[in-house]
């Protein structure tokens, strides 16, 4: 059984894909999640697949209800993405999708920090190929940035786990809390992958750069694995509540003015993560249930939204709002699916977002975090603005762009319809999802007051939209880039560095050798020394070698004799 | 009967194979004899390791002359695994060498090449097995002289200068060792290592011991290519035939490091405070500077052989860093990296050998999209490269993990951090090669011809054998660690 | 309304949404719904946890003003951070087209439709 654990099944699939033709690859990507699901359902609760490694006991499978619900949705997401990607004939993408999904699943099932680290890094390396598969220089550069940050998160995790091990002598991945340097480092590692504010920008930078299908895959795994890791290790850590609240709010503004719809969705993803992080921060059974449920629903409707925008991109060649509009005429099914996704993410009653988000909102209210609760309510209105209205409205309605694309291909429609159905089914029959949640908490989402409150919030927000459109106050979609924190490393840093280099050139001859030139001279110097033929890298002559030997011998003799 | 003579057989088999090869002269036959002799060596080493595990230390008096007068061979848990490692790596590279040597060495000199190889192997094994200080010097000379010859077989005329420079430096190192042994003899009147270890603490002249210690240390630092005494290595590795490089990278420096360990810990013993002085003032800075500077240098190299050569010096820095911690954990880390690095670097040089076999060069910027033509070779390079970086589930990870753990245990956080920094540098230099191999579009004036053009199977099979072995030991890293930890205990405990 | 694609005349299932009457009707329905929800707030007592949540029309005001403030805030933000698409130069996917070789673009220009009518 150890050799048939769910993550390995994905890895086997990836390995097989290396050697077979297109049709077989497509079937493998579809079959792997199915077999993995069977394997997951057959696994008993508790620890399994324990391996001795360097004197540590690694636990590759630790199955409990929290891990189960995340594993289940990961497998479902991998399956839906495989249907959606039926047309893809690209070995790199198919292999990396399987590796990536398997590694994310492994991360969720990992019972110790070392195997978590292992999977943490595999997700980073495997997923970057979904960006590189776009095969443009810009995608390559974006992928490099993404990879650096992701691997950096892994390095932090490694450092943290070493320090943590040094402190406690344990590598178990269980509740840790922010108590020491080690746990802080691990927390930051999780935070990067979870896109905490100011560590978030890799997400908006990279996801829109991936391929049509790649973005759908990317949107499901990395961040939710991080949410799971936080829920496992840091549940009830109060600072998470405030981090989460900020996360729900600030991406709204960016999403509102972003032109690339896939980037809008990336911002919206960030905002949804905020809800989950708040749930982790509150840490009560109700709140953790909310986080798990919200992650579950979120993966579905976010995939659905990325799928519909992806289908539009697939048919029109662009995902920019300013270039789109009026597509409902020829892509009605995509439009309806997109609307279902929009309604779900905006948490309309009878859609999946409603039954998961309200758990977190109620938890925050019940535990007295009133300000945070209010922030979440405002953010809910904000979600409606960018994901609920902006995505479907500017793509399928608004002004007619004159584009008459054909309806999405059959397999994409099937994937979207299944996903949309799941969103509605969960929304209508919430108990289906609730019974999977980690804790047994009786919760009824459909109370009169609750439905009324949510409908009031959403309808008046819609009213505000209509009002702003009629008055012409609503900002139009324009082409352009909106700066975000990546500005620091994409603009300031390169410009400063090149400015340094430039000043180094001009100033080197004069007396003004300041700090800047010093730095660049160092770099140039290292380069000169180390390049082939440089002092450090050339074949030293016998004389200089003997000189060094003599010097060292004298030093050693001196040290020893005096 | 044979079992009791195993220590002698370990040396005698390759030593006698050499003259037989010279007499035979036919190149194929020479290769076959070398391979057979080498495989027998592996078998003997395997048996010896089993014996050591069963009954502990083996002491063998050569020719029946009892120690300390006669020469004694001494096998314990420190050198038995290394005997197997050296013999096995030599065997694997020899199997791999056939085609490569055929292409790069003049066909009427093949017998000399293999004879030199056998001499070199017996020298290396002798340095490992002997328990006599002067005998170490003799075997060191045997291996060094044959190494100079092997390097000079390089197709390029620069191989001659490289060999000559190594000869000068190597001779200086060897004579330092001889001087040191002379002083030891003068001070204690003995050459047997066990005897020395007993006599040194109450030797008449401590000054003489100190001088001996200094000379032997410097001499062995030269032979082990510890920064900054590494300068001979880059040219030698670059210009030697690539099979020789692969062989030397896995064995020569490692054996010298072993002798270094033996002298430092077993013969001189750790109770002397001058050793701590050596550790903290010379060895530790040398190690840390070595792995940092040499990794930077490796980043800027364009020839793969040179890049790997500098990377070797950097990796030796890790080993020395582990040694200079002088704790159980530190020695374990250093020792395990001796084994692991030998496997990694040999595999890397073997894959470079495949590239050179087909392309005639190993110039990084000209390897555009090589994965199309030589997928297996590229995969081998990248897998081994990942191991060099220290990706989990590889042997490199096992080494770095224990090294960092050892540094942190002693509270040397700075060193742990610097090891990580240097790992990032390894990511860069391996990544640059992988980037060219995998992603770079063909944009050369005379691109590599399209279509599969993989190295011959006789090269690929031994290479992958080694890689699978190292992957296995990466996954089951606790096995090598147990061996290393045993060796560390033995070293710290002195001769028993 | 019929539109032409690939030479075939097809009927858009949702063509009605574009007619001005329908748009007006939709707005009216929304306004009516809002009024209804607003009035329901008087009749139905909402179960509350947070002080002030029970206030009459709390969610209606929050919904309307939160939305408006977000849009206005975002508009202000845009005036600060909007840059040209080529701002980051070659290294940015914003300045490039999605490589069409990986897509299956089936996009009939609108001109056909005009010709048909």
Would you kindly provide a written description of the structure presented here, covering whatever features stand out?
- The complex is a heterotrimer of chains A (562), B (496) and C (117).
- The mean pLDDT of chain A is 89.
- Chain A has a two-stranded antiparallel sheet with strand order 1-2.
- Chain A has helices spanning 6-17, 22-42, 65-84, 91-109, 113-132, 137-168, 181-193, 201-206, 212-220, 222-233, 238-257, 261-282, 285-316, 332-345, 352-366, 370-396, 410-428, 430-434, 448-471, 486-507, 515-530, 542-561, and strands spanning 46-53, 56-63, 403-405, 481-482.
- Chain A has 22 helices and 4 strands.
- Chain B has 496 residues and is mostly helical.
- Chain B has a domain at 290-489.
- The two termini of chain B are 25 Å apart.
- The model of chain B has no long low-confidence stretch (mean pLDDT 87).
- Among the domains of chain C are: 1-44; 50-84.
- In chain C, a hairpin with a 2-residue loop joins strand 1 and strand 2 (8-11).
- Chain C is flat.
- Mean pLDDT of chain C is 78; it is low at 110-117.
- Classes of the chains: A mainly alpha (562), B mainly alpha (496), C mainly alpha (117).
- Strand 4 (481-482) of chain A pairs antiparallel with strand 3 (82-83) of chain C, so a sheet runs across the interface.
If you compute it from the alpha carbons, what radius of gyration of chain A comes out, rounded to the nearest whole angstrom?
Answer: 26 Å
The rough form of chain A would be described as globular
Structural class of chain A: mainly alpha
Helix content of chain A: over 70%
Major β-sheet annotation of chain A: 2 strands, antiparallel
Largest two-chain interface: A-C, 84 and 76 residues
**Quick one: how many beta strands of chain B?**
2
Average pLDDT number of chain A: 89
Which stretches of chain B of 5+ consecutive residues score pLDDT under 50?
none
The total of helices of chain A stands at 22
Structural category of chain B is: mainly alpha
Strands in their spatial order, largest beta sheet of chain A: 1-2
The percentage of residues in β strands of chain A lies in under 5%
C-alpha end-to-end distance of chain B: 25 Å
């Amino acid at each position: 059984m150890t050799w048939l654990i769910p993550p390995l099944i994905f890895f086997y699939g990836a390995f097989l894909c290396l050697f077979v033709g297109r049709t077989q690859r497509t079937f493998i990507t579809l079959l792997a999640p199915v077999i993995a699901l069977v394997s997951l359902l057959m696994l008993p609760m508790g620890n399994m697949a324990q391996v001795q490694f360097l004197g540590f006991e690694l636990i590759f499978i630790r199955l409990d209800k929290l891990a189960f619900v995340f594993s289940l949705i990961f497998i479902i997401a991998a399956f839906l993405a495989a249907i959606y990607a039926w047309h893809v004939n690209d070995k790199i993408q198919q292999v990396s999708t399987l590796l990536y999904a398997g590694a994310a699943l492994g991360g969720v099932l990992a019972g110790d920090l070392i195997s978590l680290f292992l999977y943490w890094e595999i997700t980073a390396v495997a997923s970057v190929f979904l960006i590189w598969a776009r095969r443009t220089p810009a995608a390559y550069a974006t992928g490099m940035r993404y990879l650096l940050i992701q691997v950096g998160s892994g390095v932090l995790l490694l450092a943290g786990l070493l320090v943590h091990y040094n402190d406690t002598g344990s590598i178990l991945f269980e509740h840790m809390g922010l108590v020491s340097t080690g746990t802080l480092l691990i927390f930051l590692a999780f935070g990067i992958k979870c896109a905490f504010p100011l560590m978030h920008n890799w997400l908006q930078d990279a996801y829109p750069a991936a391929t049509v299908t790649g973005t759908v895959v990317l949107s499901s795994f990395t961040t939710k694995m991080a949410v799971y890791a936080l829920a496992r290790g840091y549940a009830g850590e109060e600072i998470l509540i405030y981090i989460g609240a900020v996360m729900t709010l600030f991406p709204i503004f960016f999403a509102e003015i972003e032109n690339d719809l896939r980037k809008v969705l990336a911002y919206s993803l960030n905002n949804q993560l905020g809800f989950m992080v708040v749930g982790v921060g509150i840490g009560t059974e109700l709140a953790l249930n909310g986080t798990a449920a919200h992650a579950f629903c979120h993966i579905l409707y976010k995939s659905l939204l990325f799928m519909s925008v992806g289908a539009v991109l697939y048919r029109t060649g662009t995902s920019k709002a300013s270039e789109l509009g009026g597509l409902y005429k020829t892509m009605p099914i995509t439009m309806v699916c997109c609307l279902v996704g929009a309604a779900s993410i905006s948490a309309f009653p009878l859609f999946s977002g409603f039954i998961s988000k309200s758990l977190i909102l109620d938890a925050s209210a019940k535990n007295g975090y009133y300000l945070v609760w209010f922030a979440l309510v405002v953010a809910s209105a904000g979600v409606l603005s960018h994901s609920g209205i902006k995505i479907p409205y500017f793509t399928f309605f608004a002004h007619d762009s004159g584009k008459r694309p054909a309806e999405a291909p059959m397999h994409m429609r099937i994937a979207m319809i299944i996903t949309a159905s799941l969103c509605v089914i969960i929304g209508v029959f919430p108990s289906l999802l609730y019974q999977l949640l980690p804790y047994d908490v009786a919760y009824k989402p459909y109370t009169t007051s609750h439905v009324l409150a949510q409908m009031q919030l959403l309808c008046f927000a819609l009213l505000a939209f209509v009002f702003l459109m009629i008055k012409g106050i609503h900002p139009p979609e324009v082409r352009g880039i909106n700066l975000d924190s990546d500005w620091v490393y994409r603009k300031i840093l390169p410009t400063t560095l090149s400015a340094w280099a430039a000043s180094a050139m001009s100033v080197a001859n004069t007396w003004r050798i300041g700090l800047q030139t010093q730095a660049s001279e160092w770099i140039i110097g290292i380069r000169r020394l180390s390049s082939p033929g440089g002092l450090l890298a050339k074949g030293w002559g016998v004389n200089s070698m003997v000189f060094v030997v003599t010097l060292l011998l004298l030093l050693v003799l001196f040290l020893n004799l005096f | 009967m044979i079992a009791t003579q195993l220590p002698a057989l370990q040396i005698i088999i390759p030593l006698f194979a050499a003259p037989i090869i010279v007499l035979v002269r036919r190149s194929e036959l020479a290769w076959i004899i070398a391979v057979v002799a080498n495989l027998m060596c592996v078998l003997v080493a395997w048996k010896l390791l089993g014996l050591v595990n069963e009954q502990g230390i083996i002491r063998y008096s050569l020719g029946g002359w009892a120690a300390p007068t006669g020469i004694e061979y001494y096998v314990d848990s420190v050198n038995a695994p290394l005997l197997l490692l050296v013999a096995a790596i030599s065997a694997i590279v020899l199997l791999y060498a056939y085609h490569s040597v055929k292409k790069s060495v003049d066909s009427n000199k093949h017998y000399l090449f293999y004879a030199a190889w056998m001499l070199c192997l017996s020298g290396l094994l002798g340095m490992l097995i002997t328990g006599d200080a002067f005998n170490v010097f003799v075997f060191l000379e045997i291996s060094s002289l044959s190494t100079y010859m092997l390097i000079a077989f390089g197709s390029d005329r620069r191989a001659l200068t490289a060999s000559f420079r190594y000869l000068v430096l190597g001779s200086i190192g060897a004579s330092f060792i001889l001087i040191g042994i002379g002083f030891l003899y003068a001070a204690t009147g003995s050459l047997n290592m066990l005897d020395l270890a007993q006599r040194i603490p109450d030797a008449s002249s401590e000054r003489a011991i100190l001088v001996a210690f200094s000379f032997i240390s410097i001499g062995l630092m030269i032979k082990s290519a510890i920064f900054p005494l590494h300068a001979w290595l880059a040219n030698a590795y670059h210009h030697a035939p690539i099979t020789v490089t692969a062989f030397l990278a896995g064995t020569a420096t490692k054996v010298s490091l072993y002798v270094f360990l033996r002298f430092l810990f077993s013969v001189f013993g750790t109770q002397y405070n001058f050793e701590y002085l050596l550790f903290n003032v010379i060895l530790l800075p040398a190690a840390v500077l070595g792995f940092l500077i040499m990794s930077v240098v490796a980043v800027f190299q364009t020839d793969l052989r040179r890049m790997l050569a500098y990377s070797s010096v950097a990796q030796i820095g890790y080993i020395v860093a582990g040694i200079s911690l002088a704790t159980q954990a530190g020695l374990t880390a250093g020792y395990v990296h001796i084994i692991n690095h030998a496997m990694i670097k040999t595999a890397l040089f073997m894959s470079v050998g495949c590239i050179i076999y087909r392309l005639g060069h190993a110039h990084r910027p000209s390897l555009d999209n090589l994965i199309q033509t030589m997928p297996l070779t590229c995969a081998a390079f990248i897998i081994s490269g990942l191991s060099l970086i220290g990706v989990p589930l590889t042997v490199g990870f096992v080494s770095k993990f224990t090294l960092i753990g050892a540094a942190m245990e002693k509270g040397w956080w700075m060193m742990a951090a610097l090891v990580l920094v240097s790992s990032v540098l390894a990511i860069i230099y391996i990544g640059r090669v992988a980037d060219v191999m995998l992603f770079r579009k063909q944009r050369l004036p005379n691109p590599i011809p399209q279509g599969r053009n993989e190295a011959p199977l006789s090269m690929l099979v031994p290479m992958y054998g080694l890689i699978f072995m190292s992957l296995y030991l990466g996954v089951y890293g606790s096995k090598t660690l147990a061996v290393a930890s045993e060796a560390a205990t033995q070293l710290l405990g002195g001769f028993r | 309304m019929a539109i032409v694609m690939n030479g075939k005349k097809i009927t858009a299932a949702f063509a009605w949404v574009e007619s001005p009457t329908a748009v007006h009707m939709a707005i009216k329905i929304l306004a009516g719904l809002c009024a209804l929800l607003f009035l329901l707030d008087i009749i139905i007592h909402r179960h509350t946890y947070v002080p002030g949540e029970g206030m009459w029309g709390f969610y209606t005001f929050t919904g309307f003003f939160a939305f408006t403030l977000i849009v206005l805030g975002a508009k202000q933000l845009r005036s600060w951070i909007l840059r040209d698409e080529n701002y980051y130069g070659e290294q940015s996917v914003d300045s490039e087209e999605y490589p069409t070789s990986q897509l299956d673009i089936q996009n009939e220009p609108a001109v056909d439709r005009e010709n048909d009518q």
